[in-house]
Amino acid sequence: MKVTDVKVHLVRSNRNTVIPSPWIFVQVFTDEGIVGLGDATNWPGGTIIKQSIEELSRFVIGENPFNIEHIYHQLYEALQQIGQTGAVIAAISGIEIALWDIVGQAVGQPIYNLLGGSCRDTVRFYSHAGEPEECARLAEKGCTAIKAYFPGGTPRPGERINIPCSITLSEERIALAHMQRCREAVGDEVDIATDVGARYTTSAAIRLGNRLEEIGLLFYEEPVGPENIDALAKVTAAVNTPTCVGERRYTRFGFRDLIAAQAVDMIMPDVVRAGGIAETKKIAAMAESYYMQVSPHNPNSAISTLASIHVMANIPNALVLEYVDDEQDAAWRNDLLTDPPEVENGYLRLPTKPGLGSQLVMKEVEKYRFEG
Question: Which domain holds residue 231?
């Protein structure tokens, strides 16, 4: 079997940032008629990733799609002069995921079986909420975990603030009161977490983290920026709530020192930003050796969710997967796939069809094609 072509589709999403941010879907075609599906979505932007995939396709066309490790390294080394993070690693991830899909289809097995089989029958997820009422709605739908944002927490696109910033007593009290209302809205049986988007100084992150401890958070995401491992370690040592970062770390090399320093309590790699399915599994294996759990970043498309489910099914140290509730995302998200992710009582079912377990519905792709 040989790869014959690589195509990229930009599809409208509901992500409204300063720069338009479509979903970026990848199709890898073979001479035996099998078409692999991948996701290369990163934001903001989309055209730069599309161009990266098109330029990288020359390293893929003519190759045996079973040689995923070899192709990955060919792509990774091809980019060494311009850096192997951001847009370019998303491009590699999209291709890599599609190759796994091809292999799974060719041998008639779901991807998680190719990785070593499943460690669980379903994958637990968490959704997002801004207000206590939204927390209650999600809990009523069966969500067992919710990430709640408080006023002034995660910076919004276009917001003019200096980061890192301190926190006033008034802001601290507002955050604590809001999170307490979220807790009361769902009771003690539903996990609550929060994300402050690396907004604060180290001292402010510690101060707030200690106050939030009484809420009983599942995790405290990006208390400070992920670039400074020492600052992260200082926060982690000072607060009892589990800390985590990962959405702005790329490949196993970006996670190595973070994990080795035990600078956080859990990690949050994104299957599209980290380098794909195999790379995310390698990152999880490193974390496992330090007794860290994995909670992947995934506020993405249904394709990214499927790829993440396959990894989460396989790795023993999986905790919970980020998954945007259907009512919070673009109404056409699941229409784009023949077999979108299936939700049941706060858990995602494992795909049972070969490969990724789904294909694009091209008439829907054309209907929502991004023309920006």
Answer: 114-349
The CA distance from 372 to 180, in Å, is 42
Which CATH number characterizes residue 291's domain?
A: 3.20.20.120
DSSP one-letter string for 56-75: HGGGTTTS-TT-HHHHHHHH
Q: Which residue, chain included where needed, has tokens 């040989």?
A: 2
Q: Based on the domain organization, do 274 and 177 belong to the same domain?
A: yes
Pair 346, 122: CB distance under 8 Å: no
Rounded distance, CA 19 to CA 351, Å? Answer: 33
State the CB neighbour count (10 A cutoff) for residue 210: 13
Is the distance from CB of 55 to CB of 40 less than 8 angstroms?
Answer: no
Cα 48 to Cα 87: distance, rounded to the nearest angstrom: 7
Tell me, yes or no, whether 183 lies in a domain.
yes
Query: In the numeric block, which tokens belong to residue 111?
Result: 């991807």
Identify whether the C-beta of residue 17 lies closer than 8 Å to the C-beta of residue 157.
yes
Tokens 């599209």 found at: 272
Are both 192 and 332 inside the same structural domain?
A: yes
Q: Is 372 part of any domain?
A: no
Residue 7 placed within a domain: yes
Same domain for 133 and 79, yes or no, is no
- For 19-38, the DSSP string reads S---EEEEEEEETTS-EEEE
Q: What are phi and psi of 168, to 5 degrees?
A: -85, 165
d(CA 179, CA 76): 42
Q: Give the mean pLDDT per block of 10 residues along the chain (372 residues).
A: 98 79 96 98 86 95 98 92 86 98 98 98 97 97 96 66 86 96 97 96 97 96 95 98 96 97 98 97 98 96 98 98 94 97 96 98 97 78
Retrieve residue 343's tokens: 């939700």
189 with 47, same domain: the answer is: no
Note the pTM of the prediction, 2 decimals.
0.96
CA-CA distance, 91 to 41, in Å (whole number)? 8
- The verdict on residue 357 lying in a domain is no
Of 72, 28, 71, which Cα lies nearest the Cα of 356? 28
